[in-house]
């Protein structure tokens, strides 16, 4: 299973650097396009994305079939949500909304994600093992606790304050920073792509907490250039692009290029006016 988990393999070898894409649009064609674009992992976002439980299961299967790690972002730290994400064959990635009170919440996430005796995850899904090279149910049961990555997202003021404590929780593998909601929650939102110095300090604090506790650090980036900057800073699990805005940007760029310069447009308009007389 570890050999089939591309994200885990990347995080545990060399620099630990890996790059991913974000899926918010439903459909296995979208999943496969992202997975075949050179990424190590793809987040299937069931929190903010237009992706329900059935679409999530199909997306996870499509991504895994391309040899890429499917990471399921669940809407809250609820045991049944963790179970659905893992039973689909995905890697669990909850929002931090329920991880901001104490380490108890982080420990609950680990219990939900691990089979006994380390946790309380129920066993019975016929799908999960297919996503890891078709291992048997017995082998999946034996290997899952050590082979699956558990990720927590730090994006609230309280989660930021507890970052060091959360990082110390056994079973947590990655502290993932959500800059946009984090900025909003600490009173320094990202406006016009500009980050306040206090937000930059908060991001550094999360990365430092992860490093000091031998955990990987991840962050959401909106472009390849920004992802490279975060990689140079030492982050290891970094997103590069999200399907919906990338599609919109590409389509807008194409039609803008097709229409040409203002001068060209003005000439064509003038020609049209002459021909209409």
Describe the structure.
The mean pLDDT is 90. It is globular, with a radius of gyration of 21 Å. The longest helix is centred in the C-terminal third of the chain and has 17 residues, at 243-259. By secondary structure, it is of the alpha/beta class. It has an eight-stranded parallel sheet with strand order 4-3-2-1-8-7-6-5. 48% of the residues lie in helices and 14% in strands.
Could you write a compact summary of the structure shown?
It contains 13 helices and eight strands.
What gyration radius follows from the Cα positions, in whole Å?
21 Å
Termini separation comes to: 73 Å
Strand order of the largest sheet: 4-3-2-1-8-7-6-5
- Can you give the mean pLDDT? 90
Number of strands: 8
Which structural class do the helices and strands define? alpha/beta
What string gives the helices and strands in order? HEHEHEHEHHEHHEHHEHEHH
The share of residues in helices is 40-55%
Proportion in β-strands? 5-15%
Task: Identify the notable features of this structure and list them briefly.
277 residues; 13 helices; 8 strands; alpha/beta; 8-stranded parallel sheet; globular; 14% strand
